[in-house]
Amino acid sequence: MILLTACGAQPAPQFFGANRFDVVRDGRSYTVYQKGDAVEVIRLGHARRGQHQTIRATMIGLIPEVTGCTVIATSLQGDSGEMRGRLRCPKPVPQRPLPP
After folding, report:
1. Quick count: other Cβ atoms within 10 Å of Cβ 84?
2. For 75-97, what is the mean pLDDT?
3. Tell me: the pLDDT tens digits for 12-46?
4. Rounded mean pLDDT, 53-60
5. Contact yes or no for 60/71 (Cβ under 8 A)
6. DSSP-assigned letters across all residues of 23-62
7. DSSP conformational letter for 16
8. Would you call 55 helix, strand, or coil by DSSP?
9. Do 84 and 12 touch, CB atoms closer than 8 A?
10. What global pTM score does this model have?
């Protein structure tokens, strides 16, 4: 007997150890992985014919919302199920030591 279990969204190997964000938008679940200046977005669940263009737009919109970075549109690859791309992130502001 084979036992199958649902384990949710699994990142591509290059995203192992990445920051993970689970988001629900318009009743649909997505997982966003960010590792450095790379991002992967995975849609969970079934999408019917005619929904894919809207889902893809939602996935692209989630990237800056959850990462705080700008997606480089020309780097995006994939479809409404899974897409990857590159990010342009603001440089962190150096922290000054607190006075004693």
Report:
1. 18
2. 86
3. 888 898 999 999 999 999 999 999 999 999 999 88
4. 94
5. yes
6. EEETTEEEEEEEETTEEEEEEES---TT-HHHHHHHHHHH
7. T
8. helix
9. yes
10. 0.80
Angle at 15 between CA 9 and CA 16, to 5 degrees: 85
Please choose, from the candidates 78, 1, 74, the residue with its C-alpha nearest in 3D space to the C-alpha of residue 32: 78
| Alpha-carbon span 53 to 44, nearest angstrom | 16
Give alpha helix (H) positions in 11-67.
Answer: 52-67
Q: How far does CA 45 lie from the centroid of its chain?
A: 15
- d(CA 86, CA 63) in angstroms, rounded, equals 10
**What's the token pair of residue 1?**
């007997």
Question: What is the Cα 87 distance to its own chain's centre?
Answer: 11
